[in-house]
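Morning, I've got a small favour to ask if you have a moment. It would help a lot if you went through both lines with me. I owe you a coffee for this, so here goes:
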Amino acid sequence: MNTPQAVVLLSGGLDSATAAAQAQADGYGAIALSCRYGQRHHRELAAAKAIAQHLKIAQHFIIDVNLGQWGGSSLTDTTTPLAQDGSDTAPIPATYVPGRNTVFIALALSLAEAQGATAVYLGINAVDYSGYPDCRPDYLAAYQQLAALSSRVGVEGQPIQLVAPLVADSKVDIVRRALQLGVPIPLTWSCYAGGDAPCGRCDSCRIRDQALITAGYPQWATPNVTPCF
């Protein structure tokens, strides 16, 4: 029997790497998809390549879809400073990229149908996250309905399944799951700023560092930075 295939959206961060490893643990052959979307840096794409190699993912597509050219996010507009030390207290912070997951999932569904994959694995999380609307269970449920209506396999009664194994996990839970699955945590990259080393001060670094320290792995947290939590 042929191994079922799943497309995994692989950003290079801890969550997406864990989702990729979970897809493999669930019995799927993983096909990775990463995007150059006009983000501030490509350091995370280097991490995605390293993770795909470590997990022995044979097919890794990296495509250009420049959401950054029209602005709207501090992750794509370098003239907008990145918030540090929890200074952005808005319900939906400036790092939200308009439409990012909606576009990425559409691309993943297209790739999955073209490759005969039956699932798309996502690293989205609705517990320890920054409040993004496209990381929530109700968003995912609505998108699953769209996936069933918008594809040939869907109208034929076999819609591609959107799987978000981490959606209800805390970041500490994700660290522990990553370790159980053999995810190379030091190879992952979550910092919004880029550079040679994580900044330790953006929201993504702060949430990650807190989880690593709480889980008992302070050696993988940002060095020489006092966690702000």
